[in-house]
Design a protein that fits this description.
Number of domains: 1
Shape: globular
Strand content: 15-25%
Strand order of the largest sheet: 1-3-4-2-5-6-7
Largest sheet: 7 strands, mixed
Number of strands: 7
Order of helices and strands: EEHEEHEHEHEH
Number of helices: 5
Bound molecules: guanosine-5'-triphosphate, magnesium ion
CATH architecture: 3-Layer(aba) Sandwich
CATH class: Alpha Beta
CATH topology: Rossmann fold
Structural class: alpha/beta
Helix content: 25-40%
Amino acid sequence: MIIKQAEFVSSNTEVSKLPLADKPEYAFIGRSNVGKSSLINAITGRKTLAKTSQKPGKTQLINHFIINTNWYLVDLPGYGFAQTSKKNRIEWEKFIRAYLRKRENLQCVFVLIDSRHEPQKIDLEFCCWLGEEQIPFQLLFTKADKHSMVKSDQHIAKFRKALKVWFEEIPPIILTSSETKLGCEKVLQHIDEINQNFISPIV
Ligand code: GTP
Ligand code: MG
């Protein structure tokens, strides 16, 4: 897919104020600092579309971007940010989970996992919750450029094994890097395929 247009639409904390659910939508989620905003920029080929930061906790709202005038990319705040207050964490839980459950045009959630680490409980639990809620998701392992492919492959294999305990079928996994653009084309291809079959829930 060629990205001809990518624009910021809105930032929200309330599901009721989100843009009209008439276009296919894809959300990026994962631990704070895993590289969600960076990967959105890499995929769209726009360096500053989503705001990135070395400090975790940069993205705080549900950020909608419209791509090629006919689908939405959504940048979400990260989970597992240790420095945030308990109140903030509870708020995150409430509004993100409400968004993921209720957004009727949400086609796929991309769960980002840092390819440099062993499987983390918080990521596995989040995947299980998506499974329980029957929310379709795929796994994007990030920051592949930061270490050897062998290490990435080992961590992916371990994550896959851990998920096997809960899932009969493991969702697709793509290894990515915002630096080298590894995997970006594959993610776009997947989105393109879903877009072809999208029927708007808004009549
Ligand atoms: P929050 O919004 O705080 O939850 O973080 P985020 O998941 O959106 O992460 P963000 O994209 O802001 O990236 C965090 C840091 O990791 C930044 O310093 C990025 O430059 C860096 N980073 C992200 N992706 C990659 C990657 O693929 N390779 C390398 N080398 N660095 C990356
Ligand atoms: Mg971010």
